[in-house]
Amino acid sequence: MVRELNLSSMVHFEAVARLGGVMRAAEELQISASAVSQQIKLLEQNLGVKLFHRERRHLRLTIDGERLFQTATQAFQSIREVRAAIVRQRETHNLSIRVSPSFGVRWLAPRLADFCKRHPEWDVRVDATPNFTEFDTEVVDMDLRYGEGDWEGLHTACIVHDFVFPMCAPAYLEELRQRSDDPREQLRHARLIDSVKAYYRWDYWLPRHGVQGASMSYPCRFDRSSMSVQMAMDGGGVILDSMTLAFEELRRGDLVPFSTAFEVIEFPGYWIVCPHRHVGRRAVRLFSDWVKDRGRQHMREARAWLEERGHRTRFERRAAFVTSEER
């Protein structure tokens, strides 16, 4: 009956076979050559076969020795790879974030390199998905979400106040101005693009601003603000959407505010969301501090940009018509 293999003997055998001699194996294992030879002899006795042909000062694997060596080599290589992965994981830090898609692509992604440069020891995973995290069953540190901050039973912290107003491509605005100098009349003739998952939508905004008779059949409706922004840039119509998500297009002039006659709505729109038990995690604290700082910087730049162009803002805590969906 073959006894269980001695792992120590297998380590010695693999080293001798790989390096081609007892002396080299002894140097690698930092033991005496006689100790290596004794382990090989014990292994051969355990298996009941010869593993090496001994030819003067040289060792040559037998057929059984070759079979065992091939298997041992693969096994030890797998063990070495797993060990290296464990060591790497121990020496790095992991941060897992889930983020609303448009916010992730258009706001977070252009800034994320700054976090990685500041903290190169962290491995960051970001999932841009509309699906809210089930923190009790999923391994996610935090969500970055669009909403009102009223997620029951969870820790929330606002990172960005959003600014919402109508905007469109410059050429399309000029086209509407050919019809009238009155921005309300212009909107009555405009193609309105609907961001269906936004908190502030045309059916709420138009009556509040005295615009009557505008077509709300919406020839284009999108469930992602990023798609609405692109449609407006291409001259497809007017959007009522987030300056947070369209700031670069506004700064480049690819989009322009529709009119200074309408106040800009400001509201706390983007949030850190996580269980209270996650707040004490170093990963959550570190990223929260960083993203809040980036959010404050963004809001300073946004307010300055609006003020330079004569826009007035009105703070609102929430819209009269809201959806619970993520954009």
From TrEMBL:
Transcription regulation recorded as keyword: yes
Keyword entries, A-Z: DNA-binding, Transcription, Transcription regulation
Domain of life of the organism encoding this protein: Bacteria
Keyword DNA-binding: yes
Pfam entry (one): LysR_substrate
Any one GO molecular-function label of the UniProt entry: DNA binding
Protein family: Belongs to the LysR transcriptional regulatory family.
Protein name stated in the entry: DNA-binding transcriptional LysR family regulator
The species this protein was found in: Paracoccus pantotrophus
